[in-house]
Specification:
The protein has helices at residues 20-35, 74-77, 82-96, 102-111, 120-126, 143-149, and strands at 10-15, 39-44, 115-119, 139-141, 155-159. With 160 residues, it is an alpha/beta fold. Helix 1 packs parallel to helix 4. It is globular.
């Protein structure tokens, strides 16, 4: 229930960044919604499309530059190899808690009924085709289409 004593019926998650931490945040939130019986949909736009791009989804990195949670100076985060090293250690920690890799997590999400939408504008901008995407992406849609899918009482939108 939210503050108006209305139950949450659907989570509409917008993913605009392709960093490991943002992708997993969106996936965990969508999965958690489904586990609670709440519908969930993810709209992949701009660099968030990398999470569903067949050639890129297994090569996501942790953002080391401009990320205050890294607790390191920006200059240090920009050194060659720092992003790869941070990503390696993050993935190792995720393995320890049985966190699935990106492709497996997408399989879990689609099997649980999460709808995956790719942004038409971003697809056009990056010259991606539907065939470039993970097979579970339901459709390439416009922002207007996404808003129409977001209509109704009990729908919450979250930008990651």
């Amino acid at each position: 229930m939210n503050e108006n004593n209305e139950s949450i019926k659907k989570m509409m998650i917008i993913l605009s960044k392709g960093t490991l931490e943002n992708v997993y945040a969106a996936f965990v939130l969508a999965n958690g919604a489904r586990m609670e019986g709440i519908e969930a949909e993810i709209f992949f736009t701009f660099f968030g499309l990398e999470a569903v791009h067949k050639k890129k989804l297994e090569h996501l990195h942790v953002a080391t530059v401009g990320n205050p949670a890294m607790h390191m100076p920006t200059m240090l985060g920009g050194l060659p190899g720092m992003e790869a090293m941070a990503s390696y250690y993050m993935k190792k920690e995720m393995e320890k808690i049985d966190m699935p890799d990106v492709h497996e997590f997408l399989d879990i999400l689609t099997a649980s009924g999460v709808k995956l939408w790719a942004c038409k504008l971003a697809m056009d901008m990056f010259h991606y085709k539907k065939d470039d995407l993970y097979e579970g992406v339901d459709e390439v849609i416009t922002v207007g289409d996404f808003y129409q899918k977001s209509e109704g009482k009990g729908v919450h939108m979250l930008f990651v």
